[in-house]
Amino acid sequence: MPIIGPNEQQGGSVQARTTVTTTALACLLAGAALTGCGAGDTGGEKSAGDILDEANATMRKLNSVTVDITNRTTSGGSVANRLVTDLDSRCRSRTTWSGGSALEQIRLGETDYVRPNRAHLQKWKNYPGLTDEQKLWVKTPVDPAGAGGDGLASCERPFDSFGTARTGGSARVDGAKAVRLVVTDKADKAGTYTFYVAAEGKPYLLRTVYKSAAQHTTTSFSDFDEPLDIRAPKAGEVLSVPGGS
Known about the structure:
single chain, mainly beta, outer membrane lipoprotein receptor (LolB), chain A, LolA/LolB/LppX, Lipoprotein
């Protein structure tokens, strides 16, 4: 029985480079840090598209980053995800839902370690009689054919571009000076994306905000190129499944 995670709950998928999914969270959790391109300011100043392209390139050069995503819908539900990743093959993820369920994941190369909490098992795996806290990790090989369909996080983030960007003034993100850029795309007429790019030092992408009538999604980036300490769980905490190693 597969573990149900954030991608399955949202039911989304990542489209090609120049398109957007109708559900922004599914797109973001699947690993697309959305940046804009196109016309902007003229003259010697950089256009909005140029600023985002520069941030895009800077983010792709990172060796590690922490990504925090929160999504709230008009129906009252919410989901939050924290991903610590080397943007390649090592990452650690924790997803929590407003009902109290949580799913942890450690990916090391071709191996996943997955640990749902008791509330997650009760809700998603139909174990209503479970009363003890779930402490074991499930060890399982990564399925390349799954492409996120198993609900688990990917360590990679392509930082692709889409839409048309315009400048939106200056802002501060957790005390850091930032340039605010607004991105719209005809493939998603219901929503607006706002990107915050660091105005001092390297042009990191600091935050992305998606707003529509149905939902509000915020993605924050931090701990740029910080050392990673991602290890496999202790042997006594791991339950191997068929096909594992």
